[in-house]
Structures
1.
Amino acid sequence: MTVAALFFYLFAALLIGAGFMVISARNPVHAVLFLILAFFNAAGLFVLVGAEFLAMILVIVYVGAVAVLFLFVVMMLDVDFAEMREGFLQYLPIGSMIGIILFIELVMVLGTWVIAPDAAQIVAAPIPDASVTNTEALGRLIYTEYVYFFQAAGVILLVAMIGAIVLTLHHKPGVKRQNIAEQVARRPETAIEIRDVKPGQGV
Amino acid sequence: MGVLTDISVIWPELFLAIWIMVMLMIGVFRGDGFGAPIAWFAVIGFVMTGFFVLTGPIDLAFNGQYISDKFAVFSKMLILLGAGLTVMLSFGYNKREGTGAFEMPILLMFAVLGMLIMVSANNFITLYLGLELQSLSLYIVAAFRRDNLRSSEAGLKYFVLGALSSGLLLYGISLVYGYSGSVDFGVLETVIADNLSGAAAPPLGLVVGLVFVLSGLAFKISAVPFHMWTPDVYEGAPTPVTSFFAVAPKIAAIALIARVLIGPFGDLVAQWQQIVTVLAIASMALGAFAAIGQRNIKRLMAYSSISHMGYALVGLAAGSQKGIQAVLVYMAIYLFMNVGTFACILAMRRQGRMVEDIDDLAGLSKTNLGMASALAIFMFSMAGIPPLAGFFGKLFVFLAAVESGLVVLAVIGLLASVVAAFYYLRVIKLMFFDEPVESFDRPAGSEITSIMTLSAIVTLFFLVGLGPVYSSAGAAARSLFGL
């Protein structure tokens, strides 16, 4: 138990530290690298609560795809981060004031936290016993009881895809594109023209 | 209950989703030139979905994740009507301005699908998914003219602030879940009723969660102080998109707020009544005062819709069955007034270019009496002059507030509507008493003219149809209270 507690505090402290560094690092590449560190620590927390599948998904999807994509974007886009930070000091006092007030409020909320007495009995999907793996337990729920949510989420992703295409794809007129069918269907008659050139006259 | 029963209950949404996919395939394979037919098919799809909504069973589906009751049916009919009319308004504009890509009607249909899911939500996850589907589609259509700086800015601004509000909403949901252990509206209602009936004060965490949820939802109806995006988005988005924004999403969001507040949080009425009252007062006041300085008619309409949302929130603040009934009637009236006004705005075209300044309307009665009278009817109605439709909307809302003991709120609402009358009447004064400027292009387009006429007739003679609308809104409100 103490080992688990030790690791919990380790992961949690590293997560918060990394999260802070994401927004305060000067170099945007460093910020993304700290983001990856934060993801790894969050995955560690998931493992501690027994959600291995979510931990692995977090590493694969967020570290493997999203963060790497972020790195690409940061490196490829010519964004002047110094300019973006210009108002930082100007807004720091009011921003930190709001942040501190919100933090105190949340501490007060969590300090007096109450859980409804019957909350434990009404959970929609209780955690199955240890013989069922994480992946199987999630799969049993998502594709049966939560199929409506699953399909709705799929529609949202479709909209995101359509949106990305609509907002970024430019059809430039006058660009010559390769049409393989046309190339294959070419015959000598359509490609070559034989002219009988008379001497001294040219074509 | 088998999956087939579930499907028969969610059939309107399912049908619309399939219809959209088919249209998407047709659009992809037929290319960009096919935008106009798909817009027509979108309207046909809305009509058929409306038919299925009306004839569908009244039941829960998927273990209570989805609810179809009279309240949902009433709201869905308003949403489909508003969406259908505003899509029809866009035909001429899209043809002229080159926004006729087939993705536009597809995205608008997706937005409507999201709204239908929203008003049928009986679970916080359904609520969130519907809301995101609707919002995501709307962010894209706001930025649809991507070569236009204002349109891109509108899309980006809407997206960033929308993402922030979604964050607030989700945080609130997580706090509510943390207290109760459930995201299902029915379960939440019983948990809150069981545990708080004898308690002096509900736990702080639950109330903070409620505040966060309400803030996230208030953003969607652009209630003050979550209204900052509205004028810029209304001005920057293409005008048909603005007319869509002004009607269907507002109806869906207000129906959603009503369901969340009356359903799971029904026993916390003392807590949320204060918040809704403050939102209502701030929206009515800001909508009335800030619109006075506006010269752009789209920005004017943005502030006007903020103040209308304030009036609708007055009915909600009443927290009674009468209040919900008044809100539904108000939204029905709001739909016709706004569709009509936007039809007029879309007809404001001079030498092939859209004009948006209210000074361009000067002397309209001398150049185009029909349009000037229609716009005058809408403006009088929005100002709440009897016997036009807008008067009855405000009357019922204020009556419900007074019956619930919120006399001060009703008085503030009356004062705000007097101030708001100033800028509505100024438009009428410009049209009828000022020297005419150049006339607008004629003809405005048959869809625009007919929708303008239809809305004007409905607004003018609303008293005739008031009975049936009032009684069906009453049935819808009763179903929300589980009676």
2.
Amino acid sequence: MTVEVLRVRDLRVRYDTPRGTVKAVEEVSFSLRQGEKLGLVGESGSGKSTIALALMRLIRPPGRIESGQVFLGDSNLLALSDEQMRLTRFARISLVPQGAMNSLNPVMRIRHQLGDTIRAHDADSPRQDVEARIAELMESVGLRKSVANMYPHELSGGMKQRVCIAMGICLRPQVIIADEPTSALDVVVQRQVMDTLDSVQAQLGAAVILVGHDMGLMAQFVDRIAVMYAGRLVEIGPVEQIFDESLHPYTRLLIATLPSLEVRSAFRGIPGIAASPLDPPNGCTFHPRCPWAIDRCSDEAPAYREVRPGRWAACHLAV
Amino acid sequence: MTPLLEVRDAGKVFHTGGFLHKKHHVAVEHVSFAISADRPSITAIAGESGSGKTTLARLILGILRPSTGEIRYNGKPVGSMDRGEWRTFRREVQAIFQDPFEVYNPFYKVDHTLVLSVQKFGLAKSRREGRELIEQALRAVGLRPEETLGRYPHQLSGGQRQRVMVARALLLKPRIIVADEPVSMVDASLRATILESLLKLYTDLGISLVYITHDLTTAYQLSGNIITLYQGAVAEVGDVERVIKAPQHPYTQLLVASIPMPNPKLRRAKLEVAQDELIVGGVGCRFANRCPHVLAECRESAPPLYRTEPNRATACYLYKSAPAIHATEIATLLQ
């Protein structure tokens, strides 16, 4: 039996806007096994980044976590005090944010930013230990030690992203959440960053949640895929099985849109527009775009259920 | 082939810094290609950030003047056209930019950008005729006019906004569309739809495309010819089928090897490549510091283009047994 490091139960996140309440994340439940790589996929606005922030308890007003539980080991993160949560971040669960190039302080050398993070959790650690740890971190993300003495503007995008990964792992967390870590990078650098993430993950034995919309990247990197649509999880399962035969039509279409190097001039987009989370359609939120929709889909929301062992999907037609 | 658009040995150097700390940055050098007037084509220009692909797009569009070489349209250098010729050029060569968010004025409805094009170029005699043209163009890119017109940019999705830009380009009945990373800021699920509408412009309306991208998969899907740029210089050029399926230049090989294959059963081994992106080549081949096959001569002078196949050339000394060609001959390779 594999150990589950993170269990998310019935998570709901709301954004209060003048035009009404946006149900950004609705009834999301999943678990993450030790050392596992889980891909969280969806279009923009599907709620995937909101989940990442909610797990870190970094949702800011007008957003709020309406209900749910996030168990990291035995502790429910949503029930911790602010101070306990502060100590948990980075130490047990860490986030490599989206657009990491902008998350570094432009007027601080890399070593000071890393040192700050380490000292915020262990104020008494001796200077030499911190320095040694920084050197070790630089090496594990494939950067020269001297990079630690540089300022962010002296680094390329890929190097900055690797610094952010170093920051994410500096306290050896059990869970690393990487929110679109390569979205602004070139293909070659993207490969290097993913390779880096892969190797630090293996070194630490940590579990990783990779948030993104690129199914190709997911196919290369993760063990399981969780697919979001309009704030809800619509499918979760092992990556090979999902690519072989996906149970939810949205996943199937998402995989079909991927351009391949086999057939030319064959573009298949997903018709229609993503459901508005402000005013989601009745029944299944995907039914207006679904080529397989039946009458039942527009009336009754499908239950998210374990269709086959280890494979969950929310679709009336899934068997 | 009668060239419609001809890029002849174009180069662009940017000068930065003040009087005392002058710096030169060569963004593009010795790039040549041509687009035929007789037959429409799709040419992909691929490279990473900093490869000079956007600078090249701006040179083609006449937004920037080349430092060396020239860009000709209908045989006339773009920089020295008279008013009438310039107007024709501006109508017949249209651009689609990367960011579908920044190109709109948020205070106007999306209609504005379309109506303005109709007015400025006098495309319609009456308001009704103009409206009809606009609706036609929107339908051609797969948008429903009644769901698109009358809305503000923020009320449309990124994919819809980008398609409105394609519709705007289409309104003017251009002969060439220069699309600079048109799908890089759009969700994966919508990319296919936008690329499909671009491809339709080529197949149905005979518009030539210059597709500028960092994504070799979509370049392969869309184009017939491809030019890969590395730090402003042409690395490899030729028929897309050959270049992507059997890349010759070590840089193109690296690019192709980096494509995430959408198949979990084909996982790739880690890349073995020099990580130090910060070292920029001086004299010699610009890729020498990252190249796994680097030779002594690579560090002495930049390699010329070698014509390795009838429709293909590679700027790499590994192929020096093939005949060397001058940059201006690139156009003769392209089909």
